Amino acid sequence: MGLNDMGNAPVKEVAQAAAVSVSGTESVAAKPKCKACCACPETKKARDQCIIERGEDHCGDLIEAHKKCMRSQGFNV
Description:
The structure is a single chain. By secondary structure, this protein is mainly alpha-helical. The chain is 66% helix and 0% strand. It has three helices and no strands. It has helices at residues 3-26, 41-54, 60-72. α2 (41-54) runs antiparallel to α3 (60-72). Residues 4-28 have low confidence and may be disordered. Its main location: cytoplasm.
C-alpha cells in the first residue's frame, strides 16, 4: 500500500457520504416531467412582468415563489 492509497481512503468516504446526502434530497423532488422553459408558467409570468416593470431588486418575493415552484417540479435551482 503506497502513500497514494492511504490518501485516497478519506476522499472515498467523503464522496460516499456526499452521495448519500444528495440521493436523499433527490428522492424528495421527482425528475422533471417537462422542460424548464415550460414549468411554472404562472409564477414565471408574474416574475418576468415584475422584473420588466420594477427591476429585479423589487421582485424578490416573486423570484423566490418561482424558484419554489421549479423545485416542486423537480428542477435544481
